[in-house]
Each structure stands twice: as C-alpha cells, then as structure tokens.
Amino acid sequence: MPANLQSTFDVAQFEALLASRNEPEWLTSRRREAWQAFETAEQPDWRRTNLKGFNLADYSVAEAEVSVEFAGAEGVTILPLAEAIQSHAELVQRVLGSAVQTSRDPYSALNNALVNGGIFIHVAKDVAVEELVRIRYHVANAGTIVAPRTLIVTERHSSINVIEEISSADFAASAVVLTGVEIEVGDGGQVNFSSVQTLNNNVYVLGSQQIRINRDAQAEWLNVVVGSAVQHVTLEANLSGNGSSVNWNGLLYGNGTQNLLVAPKLNHIGLNTEGQINFKTVVDDEAYAVFDGMVKIPATGQGTNSDLRENALHLSKTSRSDSIPGLEIDANEVKAGHGSTSGQIDEEQLFYLQSRGLPFAEAKRTIVLGFVGEIIDMIPDEAVRERVETIVAEKV
Amino acid sequence: MSANNLVIRNLHVAVDGKEILKGINLTIEEGKIHAIMGPNGSGKSTLAYTLAGHPRYEVTEGEVWYKGQDVLDLEPNDRSKLGLFLAFQYPVAVAGVTVANFLRAALNAHRAQEGVDPKSTAIPMAEYRKVIKSRMDMLEMAPDFARRYLNEGFSGGEKKRLEILQMAMLQPSISIMDETDSGLDIDALKIVAEGVNKVKAEKPELGVLVITHYQRLLNYIKPDYVHVLMNGQIVREGGPEMALELEEKGYDFIREEVFGNAS
C-alpha cells in the first residue's frame, strides 16, 4: 500500500464489510480484486492534485445519505444500487466499473472495493421521460469516506433527464467522497445528465464519470464544480456509435485554497460523431484549477466534428489555473477545433460598467457572474441552481 | 457662472507617458449642445475618456468642475451618479449579463445612498419593467433586445442604440457622445440622432457634447456651439455655421492658419 494510503481498514475489516453485505459472488470477487489492487498500487503521479496531508487513516467507511425525487413513469426503473445488483444483475455487471476502473489508480481501486449507496436507473425502449430525476448524495459527517455510484442505462429510442448533486453538511474537519457515474445511452436515445458538486471546502473528491453514447444517440452533459478542498475527477464521453453526439458544458469555480481538477476526455470512436466541449474556470485567492482535456479521434472516427473550448478567469494574482487541451487525430476526414483563453477581468469591461454607475466591486461581480452564469443557467433544477448561485455569490 | 455648467480648465492629459491633450479650456453649458470636431488623432476620444475617468488616461495638469465638485477626484461610477454620461465609440460586450439586468443594476446604483440599505432605494421590479418598456418603445426597440447579453453579437447600429437606451434610462445632465456616428449608415445614424433629440426634448437642461470627425451627424443633432480640436488644443470656436465651413474647406485651412504651412 502506498505510504499515504495507510489505512485503518485492513483486510480483516474489509472482509467483515463484505460479509455484512451479503452480495452475489461476482460482486464480492470484484470487490476483493479491487481491494488487492488498492493494496498493491503505487501512489499515482498526480502533479496537479495536492494530496499533501491527506491520509486515509483519518476516515472510516460510511454511506452517503441518498435522496431521489421522481414521480415515477412507466418503463422507468429507479432502484438503490444494492437492490439493482440483485434484480438487474446482468446490466449492473456490464456497466459497473466502466468509468471507475480498478486498474487506473489506488483511489479508483478503493472506490470499486467500497462502492456503497448508489442509484440505478433503467429506461425501457421507446420511453421518453420529460420529468427530471433528482438525485442527491449528502455527506452528513466529517471523518467519513463514502463511495456512492450512479448507474444509468437507457434502451433504444428512450430518453431521460437526470441531475445528481453531491453535497455535504458544513463540518470543519474533512471527509472523502469516491464518486462514480456510469451511463450508457441506447441507440437513437438521449440522456441529459447534470453533475453538480457543492461539497463544503474541506472534503476530498476522487472519482470518475463516463457516458457511452451508442448509435445515433445524444447526450447533454453538465459538470458544475464549486465545492471541496481537493477534487480529482476524470470524465469520459465515448461517442461509440455512428452518428452519436454530445454537448458538454462545465464550470470550475475555486477560491480560498481549493484545488479542483477535471480531466474531460472525448473519444470520437464511431463514424460521423459530433462533440462540443465548453468549460469555464474561475480561480480566486490561492485556488488552483486544472482542466486536463483530451479529444481523441481514432482512425475509425471519420466524419468527426469536434470542438473544445475552455476559458479561465483569474481574479487574484496568487490563483492559478492550468489548461491542457489535448488533441489526437488519427482519422483524415475530420473537423476539429480547440481553443482556450486565460486572463484577468477585462479592464475595458470594468470601466464600461463603472461608467454607468456600478461601483468597482459590483462591476467586477457582475462580470464574473455573467461569465459563470452562462453555465449555471444550464442547471435544470431550480433548487440546485439556487444553491450553486448562493455558493458562487459568496465566493465573488 | 452656473454650477450646472461643466467647466474644463487647462486640461493636460497623457497616455502611456505621451501628452495628448495640451491645455483644454472648455465650458459645456447647461442645456446647450456643443460639438467638438477635429481630425483623427487630435485628442477627441482622449477628452471623452478622461471626462468619464478611464484609468489609462493620466491627467497631468488642469481641473474639471461640475456641480461644485472636482470631477477628476471622482471614480467613474461617482461621475455617472453626478450626472455625466459617456456614449462609447466602441461599446464593450459583456457575456452573460443581460441588458435588462445590467440597466436595473445601473439604475439602482444611481438610486443608492450612502448609509442606506440599497434594498430600500432599489427600483421596484414592476416600476422598472414599466420604465424600460417605455424607453425602449420611445427608441423603437424590439422587446427581446432587453434579454440579450450586453453588446454581445450586436451590430454597430444596435450597439449605438443601446448606448442611447442607457442614456434615456440613466437621465444624465451632461452627455458626451464619442463618435456616435462612426460605423453607422445614414438610416442608423438618423435613428440614433432622433433618440438623442428625444431624450434632450424630455430634459431640456441636458448639456450635450457631440464629438465627431464629420459634419453629417450635426445635420441631425444641431449644435449651439462648435469647437475645433487640433493637436490637443481647442483652436477655433464658433456657432453652427463653422461645422459647414469645415465640411466645405476641410481641416487644412485651420491647420495652416494656426500652425502655419509646415504640415
């Protein structure tokens, strides 16, 4: 086990945990494999994620509080993951672990060993659901490590809208959230998924999200990150099916000493796929935000149309952001654009607003809220949007 | 002399260490329309930005008085509250900030009073909607204009009309129009000029400083006085007939009279 992963939970405790869960053999053996991988893994070389002072021994395993709001609709199954493991074993087996890959790093391995408390959503074919499914994972106590997982599988020609918020109580000590989102969009269908992270500024977040988009299917994906002390989350959109598309937006807003990283990866695997990435970053005080993006167009991805945009705003001299927009193209008939900007608030904008009567601080605030508002306005649930707006308003 | 005149005395202004304005003396009278004409590079926009308080323009000498206050001591927002308005030559785009929200914030900033809860001075929403609607109707603007982001993707004409809308909403007592005619075709120019005249008709005490290179705007906004700015100084002053003379003869004849044949 890597040095800073020294943990209070040893094999015996892990085995006790397994015994208490009474799960099917396939899952138990997966958990054991993941645990072994965790124990033998090297500390990952994460130069942009500050895990100094982070020690797993400080935390004990718990479950996040889960709430789901949805009136229900024919053809839509929403279950606690623990139940779906029994009732939808085949689907869960297929999708569980697609984003959170045991081999990736010790935290992913631990995530798969501990995954507990989560939601499974299945939409039958030809079912279109307008109503928003609202999932909220809430970390109630400091000193805990939780590993909630969201699984969504839609059959062909069906559609659903889901928002997932990860929040916490306002405790002063820290906690750990191992997150995972694993989504499969059936042929010709659509999934709109919003992930909103509003944890308090002492929590560590480590995890992965993946959406696999099949033939002629679409995804709208939103990632909003305003909370946590440290976040390291990899994101992956796989345009696996021919004619599939994703419209992907995101926001990172860090202040204080927050260290927020997303690593979005867009894979144009099928023919004639379309992908748009538009992320915004704001950093203030001593915060450090990282957008580690990658667009891959393998030889199979002929006819790809891809665009990646990332704009960062620095509100203090001591804040930092890194933007790494990567592009790898192995197909010859593609359209691929990317661009990133990074800078301070435009002096001309400030002067323009001031010249209309807005005091300096309000002018600055107006510009920042406008910059982030374009993304925040996309949050489909009013209550969540208001929570994010409140957090952002306190930051500016 | 009325305190409601804007008085500029011996104003020297430098940009990046280079002196652009070299001792401007000018009084903008309450209720009058003044035109400042001059060739490119004469310092017209420098004067406009300096009066509005742009941080890049460094006043090295001189003073500007309005309503008993030394304008140069005030922040740009306080100049706005005092009643100064600058219609920008190049209005600035601000993404994510709608025209309606911005104008409400600007109005509320004007209504705010020191030591008073801003909520108690803020314009009630219903009243605000009525005001902005009536202003937009007056300027013949489509309602969806208010929902657009500030100058984002606006045409040249739309930008200038938004400047006039802002002026109509904020009701300044001195309005500086910096090359409002630049980049406008004749139809757009007429609409913008009409807007200015309507605002002026509603508020006759409004003093206006029209800054322009060409005479054509002055066909629609009739000046009481014309001042010619050249090489950072006001070199000629006269009535409206001077604009026509300049149009006919160009700036060269003045340049020759003032600076000799050298140029």
From TrEMBL, chain B:
The keyword Glycosyltransferase does not apply. GO terms for molecular function: ATP binding; ATP hydrolysis activity. It comes from the Bacteria. Signal peptide: none annotated. Keywords: ATP-binding, Nucleotide-binding. CDD domains: ABC_FeS_Assembly. Residues 6-256 form the ABC transporter domain. Belongs to the ABC transporter superfamily. Ycf16 family. This is Cysteine desulfurase.
